[in-house]
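Bug #77: duplicate submission created two jobs. Keeping one. Sequence:
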Amino acid sequence: MHKSSRAIAITALLNLYKTREPLDAILTELFRVNPLADNDRQLTRAILATCLRRRQEIDAVLRHFSSRPLAKLDALVLAALRIGACQLLCLDKIPPSAAVNETVTGLGRQPKWVKGFVNGILRAVSRQPAKAEAIMSELAWPENSNHPDWLASLLNKQYGRSKAAEICANQNKQPALCLRLNSRLTSLAAYTEILEQAAILWQQGPAPLAILLPEYHGSIKNLPGYAEGHFHIQDAGAQLIGELFAPYPNGTYLDACAGLGGKTILLDQLLPTTATITAIDPHQGRYALLTQNLKRSCCRQINTVPLDLDQYAKEHNGSLFQGILIDAPCSGLGIIGRHPDIRWNRQAHELAKFQQTQLKLLNQAVDLLAPGGTLVYATCSLAEQENQDVVRLFLEQHLHFAISRPEAKAVIPYLSTEGYLVCLPSPSTDGFFACAFIKQK
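Kept job's structure:
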């Protein structure tokens, strides 16, 4: 018998506690074993995302109504309470009776006292909505940030209390789906006309061909032009990173951490048609999706190689590129809005490990870049340790590199005084950092 949407939500939250695996990976496997209709999948995702985005508010309410400290509760019981309370407190389209009953049923075969305990607390919460609302509204910083203390402290130190609170508030909201239109296959005017005919609300994003769909929550494959490659999914902040290669001289380019190919596709559309592009990624699963995505987007012939940068540099010693993109592995602290599990999975000490990896990648790219070429370093992190500190350490080690200040019009509003691209989480972008270096001749 397949699990219900609430049962899957409880199981997913439990697995998240135990494994710290990405929520998307956990849900992919659970949905494979327990097929659900599209609307039930969307409900499961909505409950989980909201539960993670507002966890500290939810826990504050549960602490008031629970006779036992939350830290002493069984992990399954705590997961069920969070899932049930999330529906009661944050999702007003779900009737309270359904939220309680379906959550208790979702516990499956558990001792009677377990179901009774969960049922009792959830019913108490449902009977006193005003009290629950007051508890949440009276929370003080950093608990009202719904971010772990270490992360709220980091943001507070870097940006000040007011800006840190604004960042957290933006990351506690569901961000709009963002498309990057394929300039080779469609235009802004042509595609937005199709969206209007389909009654899909759209907004122009801050990147030249970025389209925000603030009210679209269906399958990406159901959007007009998906199969034809008229767009790919990419945050507007990520799209701006490609602008750092402007004015796009002809030559050879390397996407050294291609992943699923979002920025490879972007380079394909920005660079001259005579430029050659190589994209590398060592992960077998990602590499397969990379090639599929490039094909769907009708890209030029791109040389894809299933190697990491260290292996590639050793096997292609002497190769020189006009431009290299290092979209480095990072903590992901800037994309918490889209991936709310990151805030609870990540730990402060991991930032130092990410920094080591990031510097290693930059050092590996040095000898692959031609004199006069551009090296773009990018992360989706908000931590200075992975961004400004990495730039400083790299420049201290490589005196023949200098920061190249971008001149693309779309990038200028996001430039720091040092010449960095800095996008903070907002209604129109996720959080991104990028810096362009030029290798002096």
